[in-house]
Specification:
The protein is built from 4 helices and 11 strands, in the order H-H-E-E-E-E-E-E-E-E-H-H-E-E-E. With 234 residues, it is mainly β. The strands form 3 sheets. Strands 1, 4, 9, 10 and 11 form a 5-stranded mixed beta sheet that branches. Strands 3-2-7-8 form a 4-stranded antiparallel beta sheet, with no helix packed on it. Strands 5-6 form a two-stranded antiparallel sheet.
Length: 234
Amino acid sequence: MSKVVAYRRHDAASQPASLYEAYRATVLRAPRKPLILLPHTLSEITGPVFGPDAVTQTDSDLTRQSDGEPLGERIIVSGRVLDDNGRPVPHTLIEIWQANAAGRYRHDRDNHPAPMDPHFQGAGRVLSDDNGNYTFTSVKPGAYPWKNHDNAWRPAHIHFSLFGPAFATRLVTQMYFPGDPLFAYDPIFQSIPDERARDRLIANFDLATTRPEWALGYQFNIVLRGREATPFEV
């Protein structure tokens, strides 16, 4: 059997702190003892594999999952999934979920007094193509209050889940929008020590992706593993 080649470790400053007291949920869930780094064996660098059978065309277009148009500003989010050497990661499952344009999730536990949109489900999925490219069509999510601290509001964001080519490349993260005034007040965003790493969570407005008179376009590339990896953020 050939030698197992491990994935490169993340730069610690590029990832959220396990314990960040301003983000109250970390106080309860942070490890109490130092982490034990396990070596990457064959089971960590292989699988899982997802085929295209269960992914339909409307899964990646959140504006076409109902019999009506959702309310809000239409957006197109495109990008590439890359490994730590800048090579494309093809055929990887990318899932997203988000609040609607009023800042409310379609979830039983979301009792934020903002309107529900009957024409917006708030979730989608797609497989990256042979060159690691992906595209989602949606509406821009609204900011919403949360009870972490007094008058706390989350910046507009979209949650991303990627499996990549192996268990060690599993990534759950969030994509933000440029120029959001709530960045400075959000402890989830600020829990990442390195500013350059935080910036990797902010999509870039892209006129080439923008469709005239229909939707604004954004580019959001995702890097799995390595020192330039997209931060893991939940």
